[in-house]
Specification:
The protein starts with a helix and ends in a 6-residue tail after the last helix. It has 15 helices and 23 strands. With 451 residues, the chain is an alpha+beta fold. The structure holds adenosine-5'-triphosphate. Adenosine-5'-triphosphate binds next to strand 10, strand 13, strand 16 and helix 10.
Amino acid sequence: MEKITSLAKRRGFVFQSSEIYGGQNGAWDYGPLGIELKNRIAGAWWKEMTQLHDDIVGLDAAILMHPRTWEASGHVENFTDPLVDCKKCKSRFRADMIPEENLAAKKCPECGGELTDTRKFNLMFRTHIGPAEDTASVIYLRPETAQGIYVNYKNIIQSNRMKIPFGIAQIGKAFRNEIVTKNFIFRTCEFEQMEMQFFVKPGSDDEWFNEWRKRRWAYYEKLGVKMDHLRWHQHGPDELAHYAKDAYDIQYLFPMGWRELEGVHNRTNYDLTRHTQYSGKDMQYIDQDNNNERYIPYIIETSAGLTRNVLMILCDAYDEEYVPSEKKSGSSEGSADDWRTVLRFHPSLAPVTAAVLPLMKKDGLAELAQDIRRELKEDFAVDYDQAGAIGRRYRRQDEAGTPFCVTVDYQSKEDGTVTLRFRDSMEQVRVPKQELAARLRREIKDYKRMK
Ligand code: ATP
């Protein structure tokens, strides 16, 4: 994790928030490469959930919601973590995350000092809206995006003539006052979620739950994630949320071990029933194709962390590779170190798709390379680099996860071909420059991960 954190900073993926003031815990800033990666991951999810599914539509609800929302959802009452403090070293822990024997003996796992009693701590950030800071003006930063979907479900049925079963997808910020934030961007106080709520007829919920488990698994396979680093974890009775009938997490093998990446939950009709009670509005669905049958739909939720997906993709892509000398001999990679760090992003997720590199700045090579760059950038995210030895420039692109380098050399001037160099295999082929865009498109579509 240290290597990934330091690469992320060095190359401008992720910076600590407010670093010049000593940093702000639980908050991170996404730099030029990081925002591109995050946007592409969000784009891949959005395409998968909306464009590729006729029965799912999108939504972007506000972060600030009526405070009654969070009473109805149960968050005001139940969204708590158990908290203990060490009286001696002042460390703070989530009681469910320290060894049971320490908790029983009230002994600090770090210094052996005495622990306080466990107390409940609500994870929602509270603030005030308007000038008066009284109880009437309390408002929360949303701790999940899902509730914005539930309160809009009737609007969407009416405006878009949706029929059950159908889904609503949303990507947006969520906030939790986490007791312990560690492991880089894994658990933060400000993060982004990609959630889809699928509304189904009661009785068909088990089937849809299994169907969504299959679809979400297939999605990660399509992204080229190492499938032996993913597994299912079913929530036991003590883990199951108060509203859930069944829940499975997709866990990823992060450097610190298996951890939740995404949850697939059967939330029953709990949320809509509660919103009916708290708002006084009828949340029933009227099935016009079935004698106006009325019911409160069940909800199957797929809830993934976008920022946690960024960390997963970074960990999954990270590789250090020894470059054997025979691979270097005769090629232009000879001057670089024997080891390379490479991010093996799927080309559709890579922040930069192609880098255009003139072998030399002089003799018109830079101008030719700039022309190629201009043409490619209409369709691809393109970088241009003319500084330093070509081997070093390849290494810089490998580290940024750029899948293709286009090198312009003297032969390019003569016959109009360029070298296309592949990040993963380091192989190089010559391609006529007018065929470059089509070739890149094909390579992205047919990409198969080598290792
Ligand atoms: P945990 O038990 O780890 O606190 P959770 O079970 O409460 O997480 P959910 O409420 O199911 O998590 O949230 C759905 C998804 O949102 C998670 O799978 C995760 O990817 C993401 N997520 C939740 N909390 C955080 C956080 N503090 N920082 C980053 N991502 C988060």
